[in-house]
Amino acid sequence: MKKLASPREFYRVSGYCLPWVWSLFAVAFAVGLLDGLVFAPSDYQQGHAYRIMFVHVPSAMLSLGIYLLIASCALVNLVWRIKLADVIATVSAPLGALFAGLALLTGALWGKPMWGTWWIWDARLTSELILLFLYFGLIALRTGIPDQDRAAKACSILALVGVIDLPIIHYSVYWWNTLHQQSTLLRMGAPTIDLPMLVPLLAMIVAFGAYFAALMLMRARNELLHRERRSQWVHQLMVIPLTTEKEV
Amino acid sequence: MQACFNSWHEFLSMGGYGFFVWGAYGALIMSFSLGVFLTRRQYKQRLQKNTDESTP
Question: Rounded to whole angstroms, how far apart are CA atoms A93 and A157?
């Protein structure tokens, strides 16, 4: 584990993992899209509009999961000063913002035909919007502070403070009277969703997770190329792509 | 397994919710493509910058 935390080793291992992660994404995404759009039966109340769920639910789950990952990395970085944790937190914030934005956008597209409105200041929607602003805050802090160590510290503190929003998002539908429905997957007991609808939903959750993992690894490798640009292993690495590019 | 649509028109209209359903899937495809494009561009930029710095 300690060996993997070294930038050089992480760069090497992530390079091996990436094709596998992309393959997993391709298979799960194809199954999720085909099953979700073509084969899953229509809902008896919502008709075909419920198919937005196969984009909305994984986006919302990922937006929460990524924030939890960032907060964990922030804690690791603050306590053990492991730089790779800061790299992962840095590159994950824009991806978390992407999923939070996608969850809000698809939620609006689902809300208009079902609730009759694009937006309402409902507890679930508002707390998810706060999560998007937390991601924007992390990105702004990172780009606004030139000193890398100070930026890492400030982002770590903000990430840990912002964790309070996660249980609020999850339990908002139980604590307050909201328009948003209660959880169908992450709840006590069995999921309340029918199996032909559950299968494409699970496939899409796997696909979204794989997409995040692949992009996070790629961006972490980019970040390492930048941060470690004066180290010997990056200098050695630069020689190979240059020569192959010139040969091609 | 049987498709729950009888024609292409039925599939595209999504029971009258076509704008909302295809809007959501369109946003998904666009944001996923943008994510990959920006990450690959960042990789090329970093590579170029490092190469410029390492060459005397």
Answer: 14
pLDDT in tens, A89-125: 999 999 999 999 999 999 999 999 999 999 999 899 9
- Helix/strand number for chain B, H first, E second: 2, 0
CA A65 from centre of chain: 6
pTM recorded for the entire structure: 0.91
Residue of A nearest to B24 (CA): A106
> Kind and range of the H or E element at A139?
helix A123-144
The label of the residue with tokens 């590579």 reads: B47
A106 touches B: beta carbon within 8 Å: yes
Evaluate the CA torsion angle A120, A122, A128, A133 in order and state its sign.
positive
State the Cα torsion A91-A92-A94-A99 to the nearest 10°. Answer: 160
Cβ of B7 under 8 Å from any chain A Cβ?
no
- Ranges of chain A whose pLDDT falls below 70: 1-4, 185-191, 239-248
Residue A152: closest CA among A91, A235, A63: A91
